[in-house]
């Protein structure tokens, strides 16, 4: 088993866009080129409502990205957010970087949102397992979604019960990462 790798999570900056676009391409469905992805990231980091964060190691090498934005249409709540992308560069997968990004994004979401939704590749069991561990559940949607995607929903992130579960999961993750500095910035 590959050991977990502590990272620094920080807001995405313009200098991160091309690297994040390169390794995010496999996580984005459809025929989208790297330049288009980079343009999308550049627009996202300029939007105050978008949470765009990167995971970095060493001398700020970008190895992961998490991107979410408000989306009231995803559940009954008007304070909902959509997790649009969570991607980790392939050589770094399996080292808890995606989990660290998810914790960071959920921490931000807990500051005022009540619901988080996402689409995940239905063949990606590792990703689905991670999301389900954090309370996401498969939900049915009326809109057309690709047959290779599952729609997952996390409701009640403001409840005491969910906050308790979240803090237990976050503490367990931090315990696994005690060998190196682990920090959330921004």
Helices and strands, with pairings:
Layout: E1 8-11, H1 17-24, H2 34-44, E2 51-57, E3 61-70, E4 80-88, H3 97-109, E5 115-121, H4 125-133, E6 137-138, E7 149-155, H5 160-176, E8 183-184
Parallel strand pairs: 1-8, 4-5
Antiparallel strand pairs: 1-2, 2-3, 3-4, 5-7, 6-7
Helix pairs in contact: 1-2
Describe this structure in words.
The protein has 186 residues and is of the alpha+beta class. It has a single domain, classed as Gcn5-related N-acetyltransferase (GNAT) (Aminopeptidase). The protein has five helices and eight strands, in the order E-H-H-E-E-E-H-E-H-E-E-H-E. The protein has helices at 17-24, 34-44, 97-109, 125-133, 160-176; strands at residues 8-11, 51-57, 61-70, 80-88, 115-121, 137-138, 149-155, 183-184. Helix 1 crosses helix 2. The model is unreliable at 180-184 (pLDDT under 50).
